[in-house]
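Hi C.,

You asked whether I'd gotten around to modeling the 414-residue construct. I have! Everything is below, sequence then structure, no commentary in between.
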Amino acid sequence: MSTRIFSFLFLFILVEIYSYQAFKTVFRKKKLLRNAYIGFHVLLYLALLGTFLLLPETRGQIGMVVSTIIVGLIVPKSVIIFFLFIEDIFRVIRGVGRKISALRPATKEKPLPHPTAIPRSEFLSKAAMATASLPFIAIADGIIREKYNFRVRRLRIAIQNLPPQFEGFTITQISDIHTGSFDSKKSVKAGIELANEQDSDLLVFTGDLINNRIEEIRGYEDMLRSFYAREGVFSILGNHDYGDYYRWKSRQEKADHFQRVLEAHSQLGWNLLKNQNHIITRDGENLALIGVENWGEKRFTRYGNLSEAVTGTESAQVKILLSHDPTHWDGQVRSEQPGIQLTLSGHTHGSQIGVEIPGLIKFSPAQYLFEQWAGLYQKGDQQIYVNRGFGFIGFSGRVGITPEITVIELVRGV
C-alpha cells in the first residue's frame, strides 16, 4: 500500500512540475499571473490537507469540493506531460549534440533563427495548454450537467431453465445513491421518477444509501419513499452504510447510528435483506431474491454471510443475489453457490470517469481495481451485472460514465 501511495504522490508532483513549467513558459513576461498560479495551488493543497484535520461533521462536503477541484485540474494537466516530455527529449538530444560538436574542428557558424520565430519550448507549451483545455471542458460539463444525466440501460438476461411463469419478469436496479453528495433535489427527483416510469415487477437497491451518516437523507425522504414496483422495493447495505469511514466518539455511538440506518430502510418502505431472502411465487414456481450484507476484499470489512442468506431457497428455480461489492462474485459466490444464476452489484461507480462507446471502447480506471466493474459479465452458467451507480462520491461529477438506472428482463436460456 505504501509503495502505491508513494508512486501516486510521485506522479502527482511530476504533473504539477510539468504544468507549472508550461504555464511559466507561456506567461514568462507576466509575473503577476505566475504568482497567482502558485498562490492558488498553495491554498488548494492546504485546503486538502485541512480536510484531514477538520471536524468529522464538515470533512465530507469540504473534502468533496476540494477533490472535485483537484480532479478538474489534474486530469487536464496530465495531458501537458506528453508535450513537455517531447521537449525534454529534444533538450537531451541538443545537449548530446553540443558535446559532440565541441569535439569537432571549428566550422562556420550557422545563422541565428529569425527573431520573430516562436521557440520550440514555447510552441509546445502553448500546444499542451490548448490540448489540456479539452478534458477540462469535459470535466466541467461532468460537474455541471452529466452527474445528473440519468441513463436507463435495458438488457435481457437469459436464465437457464427459467420457469415460464417468470418469462419477461422485469427488475429495475438502483445502486450507490450516496444521498450526502447531492446538491440538486430537483435533479434527484427526476431520476427517481424515471426509475418508476420503467414500471418493473421488482425494484432493487444494491447498497450505499449514504456517505457516512443517516442524517444525509433529510429532505430526500419523500423522494426515496416514492420508489415503486409491483412486487415491492428490496434493498441491501453497502460499505458506506455501516459508518466505517466516520470518526465516532464511541463504539456505542456507531452501533446506535447503524440501528438508525436499518430503521431508515423500513421507514422508506424498503424491504432490507440483511443476510436474508425473499421468495416470489407464481403458479407454484419460486424465484428467490437473496440479499447479503457487504462482502468485500482488502480494505473493505466483510459483514456478509452467504450461507445464512441462502437458507430456505432450496426450492427456488431461480436465484438472484444482491451483493454490493462485485468482488464477492469471484471471491465466494461462484465457488460456493453455483445455483445462483444472477448477481446484481454496484460499488465501483465505473470510477465516474471513463470512455464508453458501444462496440468500440470501454475504458475506466475502475478496470485496474475490479475485474467486473460495469455491465454484464458471465462465467459458465453464472452472470453478474454491475450497476454504474445512481449518485456520486469524492468527485462531484461524472465524465463519460453516466448515472445508471438498470432495467433487466428475464428470458429463458437455451
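If it helps when you're writing up: The chain has a mean pLDDT of 87.

Thanks,
B.
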